[in-house]
Amino acid sequence: MAVFLLPASANAATLINCYDETREMVTQTSLDQCQGRAINDNEANAIRERRQAYIQNSLKADDNPMIIGKRLMSVGAGFFVNMTGAVLTNAHVINNCDTLIVSRAGGEMVTARPIATELGIDLALINVDCRPDTTAIFAPADAPLPNTVTIVGYPNQGLPPLRPLRTSGTILPSKLESTATVARPLSIQADVRPGNSGGPVLDEQGRVIGIVFAAVDTPAVYKHTGRIVRDVGVAIPNHLTFNFLERNAITPTILSTAEIATQNTVDDASLFMARVECWR
């Protein structure tokens, strides 16, 4: 791969092509402001063409001609819960969508159809005609909650990323206690953005312990309480998720700490993640 070399006489104001690999984006910025890797013009053009081709494929969607003339309204996250194409996400991610498009990190794009939706708990199942590399693994509903977690999704950072991104967070101390009989929403200190909805919250072993469904509305909290609350997301606990899956004849993979493979990590999440696009 070609490497972009900045001339020795150049200073920080010289614009370069900065490649952010996690977001699959190229921007022109000064070298000291680059949050990725400096690349040459040929490589930058190839990356831009790759993203444009992805968008064009979304617009064409050969297996569903009804997408022609529609607009991409929002992007959310989901993840595979069985090997026959069932994807778990939030109900609000797919609500009022004329067409659903699911894509994976490898670039495969397929239409999806809703299986079940429960707005009261903000969970939904959709099905796609493709097979994942693997499915998500869940922690038992009554397992102790970890202090630190990883959120995986497609958070909007100007543009929604094409590949899933990981965001680190911590469960707020007041929410660390959990029992099998009380299903409390999980409050997580993390940078939760549009595009994270429907994504899993993972422990350090890569097991799902919750599903992101909201971020705290900071202006609203300040208006009503006078408190400034930043970067707090809310997730659906496994208690509710397991009941929802059972009602829809889906048996998730649940493993205790002793049963989980030691090599399993949050890095494996890209194998079961799905980007869910809402078109109408």
Give a structural overview.
The protein is α+β, with helices and mostly antiparallel strands and 280 residues long. Among the domains are: 46 residues, no CATH class; 116 residues, Beta Barrel (Thrombin, subunit H), CATH 2.40.10.10. Helix content is 15%, strand content 34%. The protein contains four helices and 17 strands. A hairpin with a 5-residue loop joins strand 6 and strand 7. The longest helix is centred in the first third of the chain and has 20 residues.
In a nutshell, what does this entry contain?
With 280 residues, the protein is an alpha+beta fold. It has helices at residues 41-60, 91-94, 218-225, 238-247, and strands at residues 15-20, 25-30, 37-39, 72-80, 86-89, 99-103, 109-118, 123-128, 137-138, 148-153, 165-171, 186-189, 200-202, 208-215, 232-237, 253-254, 273-279. The strands form four sheets. Strands 4-5-8-7-6-17 form a six-stranded antiparallel beta barrel. The chain has a six-stranded antiparallel β-barrel with strand order 10-11-12-15-14-13.
- DSSP, total strands: 17
* Main β-sheet description: 6 strands, antiparallel, barrel
Q: Which of globular, elongated, flat, extended, rod-shaped describes the shape?
A: globular
Identify the CATH homologous superfamily of the domain at 137-252.
Answer: Trypsin-like serine proteases
Strand content: 25-35%
Determine the N-to-C terminus distance.
Answer: 40 Å
Number of helical regions: 4
Helix/strand-derived category reads alpha+beta
Q: Order of strands across the biggest sheet?
A: 4-5-8-7-6-17
Give start-end ranges of low-pLDDT stretches: 1-12, 58-66, 218-229
Classify the oligomer.
single chain
Radius of gyration, rounded?
A: 20 Å
Order of helices and strands: EEEHEEHEEEEEEEEEHEHEE
Average residue pLDDT: 82
**What share of the residues lie within helices?**
10-25%
CATH architecture of the domain at 137-252: Beta Barrel
Q: What top-tier CATH class of the domain at 137-252 fits best?
A: Mainly Beta
CATH-derived topology of the domain at 137-252: Thrombin, subunit H
